[in-house]
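**Discrete fold encoding**
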Amino acid sequence: MASAPVIQVLSRSNYEDQHLVSLPNAYPLPPLAPSSIRIKSTILSLTTNNFAYARIGHLLGWWDVHPLPPSIPAEYSDPTKFGCISAWGYAEVIEGNVSGLEVGTWFWGYLPIGTMPFDMEVKLTEVHGQFSEELGDKESLGYDALMLILFQTGYMLNRYVFAWEPSELVQPGGEPIDGWTVQHATLGDDSIVLVFAASGKTALGLAYCLKHDRPAGRKPRMVIGIGSTKSKAFTEGTGLYDKVLTYDADSGSLGEQLDLTPDTKIAVIDVGSRDAAADRWAVKLRKSCSNVVQIQIAGEFKTESPEEATARFLARKKVEGYKVVVNASKMRTQAMEKSGEQRFYDDFAKIWDSVKKGGYIKGMRLVWGEGMADLGRGWEKLYMGQVGPDEGLVFSLVENPTEKL
């Protein structure tokens, strides 16, 4: 008999209130439904994005992706008080009745945090890049879990939002009301891109693509990273930014620091700046430059009640001038419609493989943990601010890691 699975359970009002809950009554599992597979999380990553899933999950349905299991102990069974948030990584197929998805196949995706098996109904198409029988080494799998989805958001912004082919232009938030045009998207020698919270993994993906995945003549004159004093040395060390500044640099003359003219095109990209720094800079820049566009990918990482998170979420666009908010899922759907699903996956795989072959992001390193106890400690270190910008937290949840990885 397998040991009792353990899952992470969080208070829905405070994601710092974490419980690692054993499920002694989870087995035996029910029969598998038709056209389904049973999978078990094997490698998971944790980033501050997981806190965003918890903080605004009540607005976007993220608490509902993997609900509390029927075997949850009574003290955690109230879904209005407790819930489960997911993480990106790999799971292994341990049972199935879908032709072509054999036991031992690995699935990459948005997975429950824990060792409890879960079932998925599957409908395979000709393109099913989330399943694989040919795996890379442990380091490669770890970086896939940690950065692939975040890097992909940066890739899509570069390729499809700041599109150099008008036919591939997509709306950042996925809605016509965004009003994103070819003129907004144009980048060239007369433009600069300011990336706020520049040490974050999505920001690094965007900076990499702006530098390495645009045709000649369609690259901005400068890509400038803006972040905290604490992260400045790491951000500079990546080599992805032409200049790195701190959030308070706007206390001086931005025109001189950024070498601006009134006609300079400025793209302000906010990946979670502190104290609304991106909004503050955009207001100041608009006083001297007429062509400023603003995109928000993520909000600031800070503990908030659901009510506070809702208020800040709804206020995201309430700024002077043009600003759009990214919806990565809708952006991906549009991109696939523009390019075709197979080409989308193939084109992205080429650049992601080149990143991995080049040693990933310079200065970034994986910090591995084993099992749910380590994952719980990693969660605590993240919300306490004890994880450096150069560290990527990944966890192996397999029972015999030396045999599996």
Summary: Residues 138-161 form the longest helix (24 residues). The chain has two domains: 6-135+364-404, 165-331. DSSP finds 13 helices and 16 strands in the chain. The chain has a mean pLDDT of 90.
